[in-house]
Amino acid sequence: MNKFLLYIFLLPKALWKVLGADLPQLKAILKVKLMLDDRRPLTMGRAQSKKKPTRFMTVLSVFLSAVMGFMYSMPLMLEDKFMALWLYFSTFLLMLSFLLISDFSTVLFDTRDKTILLPRPINERTLLLSRLLHMFIYLFRIVVPMSLGGWIVLGMTQGWKAVVWFPLPIIMLTIIALFLVNAAYLLVLRFSKPGKFKDIINYFQIAFSMLFFVTVYLMPRVVESKGFQELQHAHYPWISFTPTYWLAATWSWVQQDKVWAATQWLSVLAIIGPLFLVWLTVKYLSPSFAKRIGNIDIVGLGETKAVNQVKVKQSRQSQLYIRLANLLNKNPLEKAGFSIAWLQTDRSRNFKMRVYPMFAFVPVYFFYMITLNRKRSIAETWENLSNSHTHILLLYMTSFVVMNLLAMLVHSDQYKASWIYYSTPIEKPGAVMNGAFKGIWVKYFVPIFTTVSCFVLYTWGLKSLLDIVLAFVNITLFGVAILRVAYRRLPFSAMEKMNEKGNRFFKTMFVMIFPVALGLGHAMADSSQSLWWMKILFIILSAVLLWLIWDSYKNTSWDEVKKVDLSS
Amino acid sequence: MQPLISLQNVSKQYGEKTVLNNVNIDIFPAQIIGYIGPNGAGKSTTVKILTGVIQDYTGLVTINGRDIKEDILGLKQMIGYVPELADLYDLLTPNEYLHFIGALYNLPDFIIKERSQKILQSFGLLENIDQRMDSFSKGMRQKVLLTAGILHNPSIVILDEPMSGLDANAVIVVKELLQVLKQEGKTIFYCSHMMDVVEKVSDRIVLIDKGTIIANDTIEALRDGSDNSLEKIFAKMTTSENLNETAENIAQAMQDK
Known about the structure:
The structure holds two protein chains of two kinds.
Chain A: H1 2-10, H2 13-18, H3 23-39, H4 57-71, H5 81-108, H6 112-116, H7 124-158, H8 160-165, H9 167-191, H10 197-224, H11 226-229, H12 243-249, H13 258-301, H14 316-328, H15 332-347, H16 349-370, H17 378-383, H18 390-410, H19 419-423, H20 429-460, H21 465-485, H22 504-525, H23 532-554, H24 558-567
Chain B: E1 5-14, E2 17-27, E3 32-36, H1 43-50, E4 58-63, E5 66-67, H2 72-78, E6 79-82, H3 94-104, H4 109-122, H5 138-150, E7 156-160, H6 168-183, E8 187-191, H7 195-201, E9 204-209, E10 212-217, H8 219-223, H9 230-238, H10 243-255
Parallel strand pairs in B: 3-8, 3-9, 6-7, 7-8
Antiparallel strand pairs in B: 1-2, 1-4, 4-5, 9-10
Helix pairs in contact in B: 3-4
């Protein structure tokens, strides 16, 4: 794949030479950059576990882009072609911009360029050209597979004219996306300290992975719904002010009829608009951009002055964890575990990347599950929600968050820093582990469970209170049980996704089956009004079991931790 | 006098490979021991045994005459360990990190606060106490690690390349610190490749090569009347190669067509 792209983009050799590039150098730089791209983890689907070492990421990202492209080419089937194209281009633009904002920064500001490339005898033209070509290849790899779905669908339904027409709006759309990305970066750089830049990009990445699975899960549902299929662009006059509407208007060059003729003049904007944006970018954005990138470079190299550093304010919020730590923990070891879990999860980008999207996963997946029954419309399902037993499903869905939380409690990219536990006089590692568990339980699980509970109470009423208590006990039981069985380790001490040998199969089965079993048991107790006493019995039993397992977990000894260390 | 730390016939194997082979060292109180050896000689394994991180060795290690395996926690409480450019949770601030470490040593909050502020101030790092360490330079991190190593007032301090990344003034501070700690009766176990520093600060020099102790004496005794520097003595004892020739070979390689 890379070889092919490199070959294609280096074909106009004479042109690059005329532009002043040194070809062997240009080729060497591009080759390495593409290789690096290949080994960098993806933004897309980063929430999934990366079992394999990061390689061939290009092929994977092309594939994922293509899948996503097909997903949102679905609206193209709409009766009202105008609406269809508008929706298609809008989702495309949204997706592309988010993807670029979250991923492009690594291409744009590779700080290593400064130390590796600048001291070498490379002329400026070569350097500039290598950057530009790299960006083109990068865009090419994303935009082409992303638009493939739409291209095929249009070609099949509208004929060859559509196939010829299609690349034009896509190119214009890419230009708009590039402008948005530029503007977004500039805004971030303008209004945040350079050190915060990566953090903000991180939030874009999180938002992107949420968007990604929202599209995958909900797009088919929405497209199927009746209300959606009857959408008419005439009902929404405001959309004619959006650039994606102008792009859609270029369709009038292919298909002439009355409706289209009325808005044909807007299609001119589809050409003028992006060209104007290019001018704007070159004239105003790029210069101030280059200036500000300089600042990021400094941070990236770690040669900082105190001015540039992120100062952690001793605000009320940071006092909160100390107060909570004192309140919820008895001994200093527990407190230490509690604070490290709290602070580390507060700031680790990797943690946020893995866990935050899960918060959105709960409602999205719930919606997906309750609409599985296609005979009912979405509105009907919604109205009958309070008569169903799906609140139990919703409550137990929070165990997805728990699974990710706990995995990220023991796994960390900073696992090496855990040497400290081994050289300090810790009598029982279980105390630190217990504190850390409490830390993330209070910080993440309790808030999300409370939110879900409020929704359940609001929709299903007070009668669901018992269910909420039972689910809370059961999911906590599940959490402690996973920790005890699968992750009996010190916080942030394990390398991510080490190949855990041994009874891995058993552990995986346990993690999968246990919450389902608890949930099913709960659902059975909920099957009849007269079984309310079973829930109370269930609560008591689960609480006893929870207490037993928790006790064993918090008394974990060094020998037990080492056994786990050895077996992995 | 009874040695404070004593290693007797200590051996350690990783699978087939013998890393330490019958190591015997006695360390007396208020001494600075310079522990040197080529890469892969077994230095860090020795340090890991002394800090209680590795426990599956053969032989006997005693502190104050007691087998360390009997009271590993007591041992860890006595020892302050500063690994070479070790990883730390750099998303935390020095203040947060030191509070975390202090809690692991069971120190009360007010003591952690007081000591860490004083030590960091001496290192010139007080103004950075509430900044995240991910933007710190090597030297700044090393200062935090040093602070974390001595925060609990240990009686034995084990330092592995403590000077790496430090600027010239900080090196002077650490060298002085070693002397002050020694005067306070603390024992210092100092691992380094910087021969000139080891030569100056150590009371005794222990040289390990391929898992075996090949020298254990004062610098004067090692010189044996000659005026050789420790660097030369080290080279003589640990390599049969002619190092000048090696350098010439490297230079030669660039000339070849």
